[in-house]
Amino acid sequence: MSTEQQNASSSSYRCTYDAFLSFRGTDTRKGFTDHLYKTLELAGIHTFRDDDEIERGANIEQELQTAIQESRVSVIVFSKDYASSRWCLNELAIIMERKRTDGHMVVPVFYDVEPSDVRKQTGSFAESFTRHEKRFKDEMDKVEEWRRALRDVADLGGMVLRDRYESQFIQDIVEVVGNKLDYMTNRRLRIDPYVIGRGYYVKSLNMWLEDGSNDVGVAVIHGMGGIGKTTIAKIAYNQNFSKFQASSFLSDIRETSKQANGFVHLQRNLLSDIQKRKMEKIYSLDEGIAKIKRVVCCKRVLLVLDDVENSEQFNAILGMQDWFHPGSKIIITTRHEHLLKAHEVVRFKVEGLHEYESLKLFSWHAFGQPHPQEGYMELSRPILEHCGGVPLALQVLGSSLYGKAIDFWKNALHNLDVISEGKIQKILGISFDSLQDHEKRLFLHIACFFVGKDKDFTTTILDECDFSTEVGLQHLVDRCLVEINVHNKLMMHQLLQDMGRAIIREQSPEDPGRRTRLWHKDAFNVLRKLTGTRTIKGLMLSFPSTESSPVLNEVGFETKAFTEMLNLELLLLDNVKLSGSYEDFPKNLIWLSWRGFSLKSIPANFCLENLVVLDLRKSSLQHVWKGTRFLTRLKILNLSHSHGLRTTSDLSGLPNLEKLILKDCINLIDVDESVGNLGKLIFLNLKDCKSLMKLPKRMHMLRSLKELILTGCSKLVLHDSATVIHLHSTSRDMNKLRLLSIISWTPIRWWWMWAWPGKTLQSTSFPLASLPRFLGSLSLSYCNVSEVPNDLCTLSSLKHLNLIGNPILCLPQKMKGLIMLETLLLDNCTNLEILPELPPRLKKLEAKYCTSLKRLTNLPNLFRSLESLFWGCEHLVEVESLLNIKPLRSADIEMTRYMGLFNLKSIASTDVEMINYLTSTTRKAPVQVLYECGIYSIFFHGSKIPDGFSFTTRYRSVLSVIAPSHPNPKIRGLNSCVLYAREPGLVIDDYLVSAMHLIKVSNQTKGLMWTYSPVTVGFPTEKEDMLWLSHFRFGNNELEYGDEIRVSVEMHDFRIKEFGIQLVYEQERFPSSQNNIVAGDVSMSASEYQMWTGKYFLSNHRHRTHQAQFRMRQENPAHIEFSFGPERLFHKLFKAQGPLEIIGTECPADSSTASGHLFWGNNVKVVGLGFLVSRATHVVGFVAVNKCLILRNRFVALSVSSLVKYHDSRSCKIVGCCIYIPLSCKAF
């Protein structure tokens, strides 16, 4: 791909990292910055963080520069020692240079320094620069560059820690970074991947945009249609919008301005973009101009007006450029060279492509490569000559010839003519002529009526017009005749739309009434002259609203103007008044959109029986119709903004209705009970129906309902036999809110109720009887619900339950009856003390900051992901079947003696500072006994390990022994004890985000290894050391006489002073432990923690269990998906650096699927995924991959070190999978 293509594309989307993190390692690496990095990653913000352990050098410097260039946002953490590092200052200089040249987003973070110190280089920054000036006295220009970069970045403002809590500060930083990324993503415009020959214009435009002038500049990009004006403007906009305080790109002004209230719509879009909030209501052009004037005068704005036809359009949107803030820039694209001739503007005339550029662009679309296939060069030359360097013609014509035989090409050449401004449609017409009849009709329908419409909405209508819409649309997209944008809207280049309408006009040049489709002026004339015929399939006519144009009250037509239009299927009217009888009105209507319908009720003789969509927004209806209308095909009924509507009338005759939209029907007081008969209703919107006081009693019968919106229903009262809940909401008086709406979003059924912050509700029990039993999700967050009724279990389809922030004391014992429940959210339920037995399918449980929670019972067996789920639950001491924490004073005395503890009274009475990784809390409490994974652990203060340990070492962390002979050779357990001290300056809060305690017991002879990390650890004081005493109980034959046993301990940030182990034999009495602590051994628990044959990672914190899935898409055999649970894998992988260690689990599978559980710690960097491949009964290889494809019958895997190929992959089976991590990783 050419450099020009890469630049155009990268300006839109391509970045390796979301954020680049610049910081001084010695200041913040192991504390603040590490926490910030992890929080950014958890928020889904892929962040580059330099590793100080990598040896510095030229390659590293280049790597850092590349990382900055490939990051969307840079986060710079300024600390006291930041300026002492020339590496940090060089990073900063590169970042600020990119900001100046490319509008790069920068987030300065001032950690323990003030912005003024950075700006003025005072305090520690002054000391650092004194040293730099001495060291770099021959490179003072570099030092000055650093000073300038510091001044510039400090002037940006930023985020200052001062006296704030670091945890909240970090959350605020992540939110700011996330908002900037969202802003960039939403602002960037889509660019075609093949942009050829437009780089000169983009460069020239960028130079003008960056000229530093304080004038309000206007540039006009002009040229014939399809020449690439909009593409040039889009690329320049993407590359420059972030350099301005606000920006807006208004597309397709020529066509939009022709629509009803089109100028007002453009004004609303402009205001919304500049103010970065939802569209404002504007009722007239003058009001819009006044609002725009107030907004643009105080911000440097980049504004693009695309496809402006005349000066009136420019003036209607903006008025005068003098209103704009100094330094603002306005770009206009137009086909008219002399537009704004009287104004002082910069002009860019866009010419056609050179021959070699035309050939490259045409080849990309015709052959999928930058040059023609063999045998097609001579056929391509006349096409290039006829297209005259017009990119759109080359693109459309190339796409229409893609994959066609030579004979087809030769026939197409006969229809070509030399292109000119007036003949470009003939070139585009060749692509139209190559379509099937069905596709031609579909293209013309879209060109006339569906540009800008939702794809699914369009499909709903056109499927009923006997189109195979999905298939036909895909063919049109493949030929570049239609585009589906990121919002699922159908888009079409204006030239193609013009071509489609020109084709319609050619059907009957002199008599519009004999054409198949009519719009605007022709439609007006046909209705006025009563010349309509049965040929007409669709008609569109729009007038501005009568409020903005009172003169239109006098414009009207007679219903008899439609009498002869017997085949009319699509009728789109805006603010059109009809008089007369509807007896002979067309009876085959499928889509009727009549905004501003002026009657108070739909007449009984108005035939609607074939309608699929009825859209009567902003109507004068008071009730929809009298009696019952049987409209069996109707799927969508939209009566929004009908302010006179008081009742919906009987809807029982609409059995196939899927969407009912009554938004902003402010006088609606009654939704008819018949709504309960709408068995296929999926979507019901009653937003801002401010007079609605009750819902139909039969609402629970809506079995298909997925989305219900009641926001702003300020008088709504939900009646239940036990409770009445009022929902108070007004858009103008938000501080009166007590409960705000039951609402639904997403494809799952979701009722959502929340309380308005700052208001206290009386405690209540939420009524469930009125909720549909098929409900999939229920959210009652912050509703002050104190008791969840037992009939919760009647919601048998419930998958997601949100009870966050309620004063619940306990959950009903019947919770386990919610057999479909997958997600349970209980954060901030501060009164909750115990969780009952939970449903078997539960996949996600969050109970953060439930400060009274003590016990979890019967946790589902497959649920192991505990870290981050119980943050802040400082009193949690038992998770049934996983762990138990008891005070030492209540522990089994025989067990403690068995572990070598005899003076319990003196030990049990002392307090120990404990860190709990499960809950991310610290607590000072009497000595505790921890039981988990078949292992007992006790932490207490001491100065030496207890007597009786046979093997000891000082200041070392590894012991290797040969199990000695013994009268009874059966070894049933192992005791270990570690004496450790804290490193100077270590703070307990820092340790919460640091590495874990680890002890590894390895039987070298049998190839077995158990790695254990306790959920709680003791934190020594500055004066008192800490002892960690553990007992492992093993099963039969796992440790035997003569086995080589290796035991090691890892404690980051602590100093090991003494370490000892003791083997325990079967003849020694082992207590039953039936009183206080669950009995068991490592063997019983280890099977649940097995990573690979003979390897176990025993931990209930700081790890995740994921289902690894390998799936070949049947519809696209050239594509394989890899995922861990819901997360895509490959964009999270990194290139391997050095030797690798394999971790994983066996997972039998067939040739197309593989699954298994993988375990890894938080500090593990996954660098690869591996699959164990077998053919027949033989394992043929272990393939480490960071890219996999199926190409025909060949399995191709790009190995971390080499390319490995397996032919005839259909005979292979995936029998195992793993992840790859660096050997240097200390998590295992």
The radius of gyration is 36 Å
Number of helices: 29
Mean pLDDT: 75
Helix/strand-derived class?
alpha/beta
Q: Give the strand order, joined by hyphens, for the main sheet.
A: 33-35-36-37-40-41-48-44-50-42
Name the poorly predicted regions. 6-13, 52-58, 417-422, 548-554, 718-767, 862-868, 1070-1079, 1102-1228
How many structural domains are formed by the residues? Answer: 6
Largest sheet: 10 strands, mixed
Portion in helices: 10-25%
Gap from first CA to last CA: 44 Å
Approximate strand percentage: 15-25%
Number of strand elements = 64
Overall spatial form: globular
Domain TIR: 15-181
Pfam families: NB-ARC, TIR, WHD_ROQ1
Keywords: Leucine-rich repeat, NAD, Repeat
Organism: Pyrus ussuriensis x Pyrus communis
Describe how the helices and strands are arranged.
Elements: H1 3-10, E1 17-22, H2 25-28, H3 32-42, E2 47-49, H4 58-69, E3 71-78, H5 86-102, E4 105-110, H6 115-120, H7 124-135, H8 140-155, E5 159-160, H9 166-187, H10 199-209, E6 217-222, H11 229-240, E7 246-250, H12 253-256, H13 262-275, H14 285-296, E8 301-305, H15 311-318, E9 329-334, E10 346-349, H16 355-367, H17 377-387, H18 391-401, H19 406-413, H20 424-433, H21 437-450, H22 455-463, H23 469-478, E11 483-484, E12 490-491, H24 494-507, E13 517-519, H25 520-529, E14 538-542, E15 557-558, E16 570-574, E17 578-579, E18 591-595, E19 613-615, E20 636-638, E21 659-661, E22 683-685, E23 707-709, E24 717-719, E25 724-726, E26 739-743, E27 750-755, E28 764-765, E29 777-779, E30 785-787, E31 800-802, E32 823-825, E33 834-835, E34 844-846, E35 855-856, E36 878-879, E37 883-887, H26 893-898, H27 904-908, E38 911-916, E39 921-926, E40 928-932, E41 935-941, E42 951-954, E43 958-962, E44 971-982, H28 988-991, E45 997-1003, E46 1008-1012, E47 1016-1018, E48 1026-1033, E49 1044-1051, E50 1054-1065, H29 1082-1086, E51 1090-1092, ...
Parallel strand pairs: 1-2, 1-3, 3-4, 4-5, 6-9, 6-10, 7-8, 8-9, 13-14, 14-16, 15-17, 16-18, 18-19, 19-20, 20-21, 21-22, 22-23, 27-29, 28-30, 29-31, 31-32, 32-34, 33-35, 35-36, 46-52
Antiparallel strand pairs: 11-12, 24-25, 26-27, 36-37, 37-40, 38-39, 38-47, 40-41, 41-48, 42-50, 43-49, 44-48, 44-50, 45-46, 45-49, 51-52, 53-54, 53-57, 53-58, 54-55, 56-64, 59-60, 59-64, 61-62, 62-63
Helix pairs in contact: 3-9, 4-5, 5-8, 10-11, 13-14, 13-15, 16-17, 16-18, 18-20, 20-24, 21-23, 21-24
